[in-house]
# Entry
Amino acid sequence: METIKNYLDAMFANLPNKTSVIKAKDELWQMMEDKFNELIAEGKTENEAVGTVISEFGNLSELAEVLGLEDEVGRDEAGNETETEAERYTKDEEPAIVIARDEAENLLKESAERSTKISLGIALCVMSPVLGIISEAVLNGKGGFINFLLVCLTVAAGVIMIVLGANAGENWKKYSKKKCTLSMDATKFVAEEKAIYDRSHTLVLTVGILLFVVSWIPAVIISNVIPGFDDLGGAFFFICVGIGVLLVVYSSLRSRGYESLLKLNGSGTIKYSYEPEEQGEYKYISPIADFCMSIYWPFMTCLYLILSFTTMYWGLTWIIWPVAGVLHRPLKKALRYKEQ
# Structure
């Protein structure tokens, strides 16, 4: 049945994403499924049944009138072929290059490598003052030139990483200036990989933003707890901001990589709007994850009270609540999966 389902998806891949087309696809799927079950009941093998179903229902032009797809499939009242609506969506002077699943997988790997280099480069530039600040504290303010040199070296390393990442990989260069489209198999693969990545994308993005919000806290704590080392508070500030930038930029670029591939499909078609089917119920990835989420809020309450009473920094410990509130949903999403 999976072979028939994939064949059906390919048949409708370039048809417009309209209610009438989706309804026709569902009707044809039901017809195919009924015929398959009928053939199996008659004693046919699965391969024989699949071949028969595809041969009988695999030509949309012949089924256009029955399914109400004369305009979309290109068959007029007299039975003559016309320019289809699908062809009007994808019509171009140059035929599109079809990207197979293996090639799509390579493109995603290159996207991940590029995202890593660019995000790390930007983070290094943001954190460039850190080594200078630490050197200043260790040398008691006597390392002026050394401090400057350390900052310059860190910025240079960051710029090099950004330049390396900005240069697209060989596969992306090959398709960047040509009209391309994903095969249906590649579309399914990319869409499913994107759905899996979206679980962690929200969490990573949230943690990155939270690091921006709380970046000032280490500086305040160090200035109050370790007198004479106020400069180190500034170093921790840049570290928090730098890591936050790393997470936000990396996660955003990775997500954009999936979207860029899916946008290669013809705008307005079913393939362009494809989303993975969800079946089953949500379950946590392990009993430990289930237990941790069940005690999430009681734990945060205990943590807040313990930190508040032991440190007496009531003006700072309240930050636990907004942080816990923001983290709860992405954590829950990241630790669950859809049971098949």
Q: What stands out?
A: The chain has a mean pLDDT of 76. The chain is about 70% helix and 5% strand. Strands lie at 97-99, 180-182, 282-284, 336-338. Residues 2-90 form one domain.
